[in-house]
Amino acid sequence: MKKKTWIIIFVSVILIALAGFFFFRNGAIEAKTAKATKGTISIVVSASGELEARNQKEVAADVSGIIKALSFRNGSKVKKNDVILELDEEQLSFAEKQAYAAYLSAKANLEKLDSIPRTSDEELDAAEAQVEQAEMAYGIAKKNLANVKITAPIDGILIYSTSTSGTMGQGGGLTKGSAVQQGQVLFTIADLSKMNFVANVDETDVGRIEIGQEAEVVIDAYPNKLIKGKAVKIGSVSSVTTTGATVFPIEIELEQSSLDLKIGMNGSADVIETTKNNVVTVPIEAVLEKEDKDVVFILRDSIVKEREVEVGLSDETRVEIRRGVRIGDQVIISEVAKLKDGDKVQMAEDE
Predict the structure, then answer these.
(1) 44-54+192-275 has which CATH code?
(2) What is the domain class of 55-190 according to CATH?
(3) How far apart are alpha carbons 20 and 143 in whole angstroms?
(4) Are 240 and 203 in contact (CB under 8 A)?
(5) Sign of torsion, CA 270 274 278 279?
(6) Helices and strands in the chain: count of H runs, count of E runs
(7) How far apart are the C-alpha atoms of 322 and 38, rounded to whole Å?
(8) For the chain, how long is the longest CA-to-CA vector?
(9) Does the reported pTM lie above 0.85?
């Protein structure tokens, strides 16, 4: 046999020996273990979403007009009844005077007709109707003039509407001189001391949500802070995400938090569907389905003991064991598919 062939055989033997050293020390399979512990298992519905103020009020213009003044910058803290913006009263005052003059004229006409004996009932009825219409128009004009100052309905943060034309400035999309129409939303006042999280739950999971279920929310800006809450509203109208998924909005009322929370902050929520406390749990990797039954392998004096178990709830990391494992048992969590009852196992060293 050639020298080169002997070298190849020698190297192969060395490699096999090294493999045996790493995987079978003293004839034992290396495996990692973990203890069975008492703990809590929760089944959750997870969804992403964003923050919104629980109490926020939109304010619309009661009358058309031109913005004369903006009293606060976008994002300012305001108090209830603070004047947020003011419309130019010149046109509204002129309209009020015209309406009043029309009312007086209609009233004078009625009095004149009433003093003429030959006036028919139809003419009097028509004149009275004109007076009523003129009086109503005058009342509206007076009300419009009184609504030139638009105030905050609650304490909170001022958020100007950006749906209007105009450059972004002190008033968001509103600027001095901008024209506004009756019914147009001008701004929102949001109370940031009480916040809700609106989670977009997939249609396949929304049936698992119930009002009153507890929830845990993490905001992206504060990844290490957990905010507790509860589901208070399940939306009835779906929307479609950019990935094509159909989702329903779930409102979660958050507990008071010291975090600086802002409207529109993104985050994620776990709505807790079911929770079991003080149950025996093991890592999910410890359970093996074998011949239509669930088993775990317990390590006793380096020897594997196969145990059939009854499993219960499970989350992403642990599973409840109703029968077959006791608290403190050392269960094997690696190489379980290779094990059988009676195998010799050596605990693997932590990496």
Answers:
(1) 2.40.30.170
(2) mainly beta
(3) 94
(4) no
(5) negative
(6) 3, 22
(7) 11
(8) 146
(9) no
